[in-house]
Write a structure and sequence with these properties.
Layout (H helix, E strand, L loop, with lengths): L6 H13 L28 H6 L3 H4 L3 H20 L3 E12 H6 L6 E8 L5 E5 L1 H11 L17 H21 L7 E8 L13 E11 L2 E11 H4 L3 H5 L1 H9 L1 H10 L5 E4 L7 H5 L17 E5 L2 E11 L2 E9 L13
Antiparallel strand pairs: 1-5, 2-3, 2-4, 3-6, 5-6, 7-8, 8-9, 9-10
Length: 343
């Protein structure tokens, strides 16, 4: 809080102002700050979508993510069947980059499989990071499920590379299956490298699509995998990718999946002879000996209700000493009360 001036101090202040010893002009005691300049660059508003597309691989090739997700599911299933462990492979992102930078991002760790993609040009790469490579090696060499492993921080040896070869070769089958809606692909493993400076399938500045995957084993993270493919390899099939949705629906569509799963769902089936509506008051007043009229005519069929929806008419009876009913026809709300003798 600022101090309060006394009468004498106020008088001295007024005298000083009149004599000009003190000015009444405002003085900005705060230090002057140099103006702040922000970096700016020109942006063509008509090209904003294309700028976004350069970093988002999914928008470069329509429906390319569907193929990648299909491969991830197939590869996870193949690893599970081959190594007898529960593998899950999930795609995290698809980006674009230059070929040289995509290799630098791998930090020269793990193993890179070089694949041909006949009849497509240039081929592609699959990379197992160091964690995934050693996780696969331990499983393939017979480690126990509950063993706690420590990932060595070193380069893979030629023997370890040779052991991983079978898993790398298994990728070809799953990649071929994933690309079936687009073209008949015949991939094959050319070689596996742990020295990434020796990896070269296109020029250094060539644009590539990079798909990243998380791999887990029995619910625990096992590392990451990357799929690198030149944009020029898949660009000729751009129109096929656009039209792939209808092809995929026919071969791998959700309709068949939902229908197959729905057929295995359990539901309640009730043979209902009558239905009552009562107030809570009337229900609370019920006592032993009360008789409730269901309005059921013994000469008419029962209603077979599936999950509260009437679906069939049926005749009650007995079979092998147990209550049973014989379905006579489908339920039709426009023909209620059909006699059970009419089939």
């Amino acid at each position: 809080m600022e101090p309060i001036l006394s009468k004498e101090e106020i008088a001295d202040l007024l005298v000083a102002i009149k004599s000009g010893d003190i000015t009444t002009d405002s003085v900005d005691s705060a230090p002057h700050q140099a103006p702040r300049f922000l970096h700016a660059k020109e942006v063509d508003l008509c090209q904003v979508y294309q700028h976004r597309a350069t970093s988002d691989g999914e928008s470069r090739i329509p429906n390319f993510d569907i193929i990648i997700d299909m491969f991830a599911r197939n590869f996870g299933t193949s690893l599970t069947n081959t190594l007898q462990r529960s593998f899950i492979v999930e795609r995290t992102e698809i980006t674009t980059n230059t070929f040289q930078q995509s290799l630098l991002d791998l930090n020269n760790q793990g193993a890179v499989g070089i694949f041909s993609t006949d009849p497509l040009k240039y081929g592609c790469l699959f990379h197992f990071d160091i964690s995934m490579a050693f996780a696969l090696l331990e499983i393939m060499l017979g480690s126990s499920v509950d063993s706690d492993s420590i990932t060595p921080n070193r380069t893979l040896t030629p023997i370890e590379i040779s052991i991983l070869k079978s898993t790398m070769m298994g990728i070809t089958k799953d990649l071929k299956k994933a690309f079936n809606p687009i073209t008949e692909l015949n991939p094959s493993l050319t070689k596996i490298e742990n020295n990434f400076r020796l990896v070269n399938i296109v020029e250094a500045d060539t644009e590539v699509l990079v798909a990243s995957f998380n791999v887990s084993v029995s619910g625990e993270s096992a590392g990451q995998m990357r799929f690198i493919i030149p944009y020029l390899t898949v660009e000729p099939f751009r129109e096929a990718f656009k039209q792939m949705v209808t092809v995929t629906q026919a071969a791998y569509g959700w309709t068949n999946s939902f229908a197959r799963e729905a057929a295995e769902m359990k539901c309640s089936v009730i043979a209902r002879s009558g239905l009552l509506e009562m107030t809570i008051r009337n229900i609370l007043q019920l006592k032993p000996g009360d008789i409730l009229d269901l309005g059921y005519d013994p000469d008419r069929p029962l209603h077979i209700v599936v999950e509260d929806q009437p679906k069939f008419f049926a005749i009650p009876g007995e079979r092998n000493g147990r209550k049973a009913f014989h379905i006579t026809k489908r339920y039709n709300s426009s023909r209620l009360g059909d006699m059970h003798g009419n089939d």
